[in-house]
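Lecture notes, unit on protein representations.

Consider one protein chain, 272 amino acids long.
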Amino acid sequence: MDKVDNTNPNHGAAPLRRLILSNQIVMGCILLAGLSLACNFLATILGKPVNLPGALTEEQFNRLEISIGKSGQAQPGDRLELQIGTNECCYYFVPLAVSTRWSVEPQDGASINAKTGVLEISAGSPAGRLYTVTADILNGRKTLTSQVTVYTPEANPLVGVWHEAKQFDCQTQSFSDLQGESLRELVFKADGTFQATFTPFEVYHDYWGDYSSDPEKGTLELAVKSGNFIPENLDLQGEYKIDENGALVLQNIWLGRREKDVSTGCGHLFIK
């Protein structure tokens, strides 16, 4: 049997080095694991998503929003399918499969499926009722809310998308053919906002703001908040009515023209 030379100073050095290296690797792995846990903890308390589903990026997570049909408004008896997703170029909504728990307040007159996001407004829900829908995403990682306003055509006949057909001439005090580019879209929403657009394109609007009306007196007042193009000589306070043909008649109200050389009118006639 070969004898081991215990007098050799290099005897046992290689195994010792391997043992030290192995311990260093183990300690390094423990350190990295600790750093990973710490990073996840910090990300969580700072409100940043971690461990997102494979199909959902952090960039998408930060842009998630609720898509709610009919521009956040509903009539009694309506059924709306709410979705979670992102708006992508150019201005279309892309639904994303994200774990979401839905709820609605108040629950009087409305119910929502906690899993599917189907919102049902009862037939007895009164006009003017405001519901707040909440989407709890990924067990509290993100919370989104949106509002739904209940309306009826009887309580607010203005709500809808209108298209200008004629204008009211100040001198003849009668309706005449349109001069200049017509107002192709006048949108009144149940939440008391409006949008006016001469040439609709995707999400573009010329100007927008708030409105208030009194159906009994037939009065209407608009207030422009902002816009991409706001015409000159606007007259935003006057009277309105829905005629026997269902057309919207505005009198002593002028919503403008894009062209500057078109004379100011004293009213409009809109159809749906």
